[in-house]
Design brief:
Structural class: mainly beta
Strand content: 25-35%
Shape: globular
Largest sheet: 9 strands, antiparallel
Mean pLDDT: 86
């Protein structure tokens, strides 16, 4: 799996604190892809990878997982809450951080998957939100904007069932229906 990214723009601009942009969409469109510090409203600053090359520019990369990763992804809820890995490589931004980031406005999300044959597939949804920890960090997705099968909002047993509106599960806290 390659970048799981937040949108190139939000519908509601957040006021950045301490001079940091609220997300990667607030960078100049001529900025190169790379490591930046952002600070969503109600959040501490966070180092992220900003993808300024993909269509729309200004995507905040929230997960990267390559075939050669050393990350097992079998982490506790607390580890997932605050994030792990290296933003220049494989990483998870953090569920709490995703919650704070997506509370700022309406976001899109793009899931990019490169299979073993190096063929790239993607799914883009017009709404992306992660709710609060007290509600179990459920995922909220809107309409699928890209072509192909909808493996996240439609039921597919071989892909873990349905993911939209499901709570976030980890090895130590099973909150989904799969």
């Amino acid at each position: 799996i390659q970048p799981f990214s937040l949108p190139p723009r939000s519908l509601f601009a957040a006021v950045p604190v301490a001079g940091f942009p609220a997300d990667c969409s607030h960078l100049r469109k001529t900025s190169p892809s790379g490591v930046y510090v952002i600070q969503p409203a109600q959040s501490p600053p966070r180092v992220v990878w900003c993808d300024m090359d993909t269509e729309g520019k200004g995507w905040t990369v929230v997960q990267r997982n390559t075939y050669s990763t050393e990350i097992t992804w079998k982490e506790s809820l607390t580890t997932y809450k605050y994030g792990f890995g290296d933003v220049q490589g494989d990483h998870w931004l953090g569920t709490e951080y995703l919650h704070l980031l997506t509370q700022q406005g309406t976001y899109k999300v793009r899931f990019v998957v490169r299979d073993k044959a190096n063929v790239t597939h993607y799914a883009e949804y017009d709404i992306f939100r992660v709710e609060s920890e007290s509600s179990g960090y459920p995922l909220r997705l809107g309409r699928l904007l890209s072509s192909g099968k909808d493996y996240l909002t439609s039921y597919y047993s071989s892909y873990g069932g349905i993911h939209d509106n499901m709570k976030f599960s980890t090895v130590d806290k099973d909150q989904d229906q799969h």
